Amino acid sequence: MAEYVNVAVDAMGGDNAPAEIVKGAVEAVNADKRVKVFLVGKEPVIREELKAYSYDAEQLEVVHAEEVIETAEPPVMAIRRKKDSSIVKAMYMVKNGECDAFVSAGSTGAVLVGGQVIVGRIRGVERPPLAPLIPTEKGVSLLLDCGANVDARPSMLVQFAKMGSVYMESVMGVKNPRVGIVNIGAEEEKGNALVKETFPLLKNCPEINFIGSVEARDIPAGAADVIVCEAFVGNVILKMYEGVSSALLHQVKQGMMSTLRSKMGALLVKPALKTTLKSFDTSQYGGAPLLGLNGLVVKTHGSSKAVEVKNSILQCIAFKEEKINEKIKEQISLEDKAAENN
Amino acid sequence: MAEYVNVAVDAMGGDNAPAEIVKGAVEAVNADKRVKVFLVGKEPVIREELKAYSYDAEQLEVVHAEEVIETAEPPVMAIRRKKDSSIVKAMYMVKNGECDAFVSAGSTGAVLVGGQVIVGRIRGVERPPLAPLIPTEKGVSLLLDCGANVDARPSMLVQFAKMGSVYMESVMGVKNPRVGIVNIGAEEEKGNALVKETFPLLKNCPEINFIGSVEARDIPAGAADVIVCEAFVGNVILKMYEGVSSALLHQVKQGMMSTLRSKMGALLVKPALKTTLKSFDTSQYGGAPLLGLNGLVVKTHGSSKAVEVKNSILQCIAFKEEKINEKIKEQISLEDKAAENN
Do B151 and A192 touch (CB under 8 A)? Predict the structure, then answer.
């Protein structure tokens, strides 16, 4: 028997749990023979959902967890107290080596805290960034950090750049990915204190392909493959994608409904529009990995449907097979060696 | 003779200078009897442009300035050295009281530096924020700071909130404007160090209507009338508006051109779409005021056409008649008094 990529999945997390999570898990194991899913959560509920599907029982196990961490709960407290929750139990399965990865659509805070506290960081990694793929006119870019690590230091941003480059090259197949730092102008002397201190460090980093500053305006056009910034700014970028898109599409719809003539036109353009606009939906790329942990933790949108859960699970295969964490360890230990030589 | 609102206009600034600037100035004086424009720049060139128009000569003067500050020039140096530039000369006209306001589509850096160095801050104002109006589904919001004041302190953000409230209430006619601080979650305990320190100060500020945190996602929907943040974040928000809109509209156009059916539909929806999408264009609201100066300085888009120049000039009338600066002075001196009482 070949060795599986073992993925623990939070069956209780997200707006559509457990139905869509269970469905996504089944679709993932049916799509790829290399993956085994451990559905963690309330066993009776999960079993009930599973009745509707056929799948190879060898590839899907249910692990009972009595408790559920709610999105509104303070994450640190929840992780500490709810030892029998799906998130905590699944995180320990990754820590203990039973699983290679964990996928959750549940509380972002709890996933971020649990990742650091339970799964733990790779030695030398200062902070594990949450790194979603964002749609661009050219394809996708990796934006990091979008997590809860606010007030980052320059050395952290350099690590984000290295880890992001490994991910884009090995998982997404982008050769020599272009790394940009989010700035308020293209010139080197522009920016806030953090950017000004980080810029020369990135410039002198031989392991990455640093192309300089990227203005927010140019991100949706695909100005860089790996976009580095501290988490507050990353969060604003990610949320502006959602906010501007949704407001604008709302306007487009209103415009189309405003006259009889435009209503007729709308009927004709609708199918074509739907296809192209789908490529600009931030949620379709499945999960955002939390990079730099001893194992893989993937956070998918709270509103994830089965297809995103499935994609998030399948994403774990490339992560393991491409030995992303070994490559990250290598990058980070190069840093240690450089420090020793100085 | 009634007293004019005297506005100095940088005839040489922006991508479409001098033609569109001169045209906009003429349109402004023809639209409103209360305004007098001083077109500052190379006199022969301006006179040549003016030949095409008719206007009340009483309302429009030309002031010669030999030099031009280019967008690419380092602003501090440019302001110091080019004493005979349109920007420096016009700024001195405001400082000396010859003019009430200055409008420029030229170098943002030079306008920001000149505003602080030449026109000067109102006593007690720590930093003058650049405050553009941004389109929302409900109308417009004022976003401040979008200037070059990176790494702001909490007390500065409180002043931004007060000055922004005065502007929205008195110039835009929004009663009791809702003030929000940009944050990465709605809860009070979320945010970076700056936001966490600023939040309680805003909460305890009786002069403003503070509604708490605003997530970037909710800005385009019109979640607050006055949106406070430090300049790096403000710049990212403003640029994401542009970037996401332009990428998305590009996708919409591509979608419409993708099939024969959709092409026919596109012809029908186009006129209606154009009208609604116009309301989501950040450039149409004319200029962004630089608040808190001894006079009004308005920066309009580098790509401004006559209509934006005209709107920027007319905006100065409300600013003067509503005595915005007197109101700002009052707000800031309340602060001094509060400090004395503590």
Answer: yes
B339 pLDDT band, cuts 50/70/90, is low
Task: Determine which of B32-41, B207-216, B218-227, B265-274 has the lowest per-residue pLDDT on average.
Answer: B265-274
The verdict on A252 touching B (C-beta cutoff 8 Å) is yes
pLDDT at A59 over 60: yes
DSSP letters for A85-101: BHHHHHHHHHHTTS-SE
Does pLDDT of A95 surpass 50? yes
Of A231, A236, A251, the CB nearest to B277: A251
The token pair at B251 is 């996708």
- Four-residue CA torsion sign, B199, B203, B206, B211: positive
Nearest CA in chain B to A267: B265
Residues of chain B contacting residue A108, judged by C-beta atoms under 8 Å apart: none
Higher pLDDT: A247 or A273? It is A247
Contact B268 A273 (CB under 8 A): no
Q: What is the pLDDT of residue A1?
A: 47
Domains contained in chain A, CATH given: 5-125+292-323 (3.40.718.10), 133-279 (3.40.718.10)
Q: Tens digits of per-residue pLDDT, B309-337?
A: 999 999 999 899 999 999 999 988 877 66
Query: Which CA distances in Å does B56 have to A195, A213, B32?
Result: 51, 48, 11
Is the CB of B233 less than 8 angstroms away from the CB of A233? yes
Highest mean pLDDT among B137-151, B153-167, B279-293, B310-324: B153-167
Residue A258 scores a pLDDT above 90: no
Provide, as residue numbers in chain A, all residues whose Cβ is less than 8 Å from the Cβ of B136: 247
- Say if CB B130 and CB B210 are below 8 A apart: no
Of the listed ranges A54-58, A250-254, B74-78, the least confidently predicted one is A250-254
Nearest CB to B256 within list A220, A239, A273: A273
Q: Which of residues 24-63 of B touch A (CB under 8 A)?
A: none
Say how far residue B293 (Cα) sits from the centre of its chain.
13
> How high is the pLDDT of residue A284?
63
Contact indicator for B316, B100 with CB cutoff of 8 Å: yes
In this complex, is the C-beta atom of B279 within 8 Å of any C-beta atom belonging to chain A?
yes
Chain B residue closest in CA terms to A256: B269
Mean of per-residue pLDDT scores for chain B: 90
Q: Is A136 on the interface with B (CB under 8 A)?
A: yes
Instruction: Give dist(CA B182, CA B194) in Å, integer.
Output: 11
Strand A140-144 with A133-135, pairing: antiparallel
Judge whether B302 and B105 are in contact, CB under 8 Å: yes
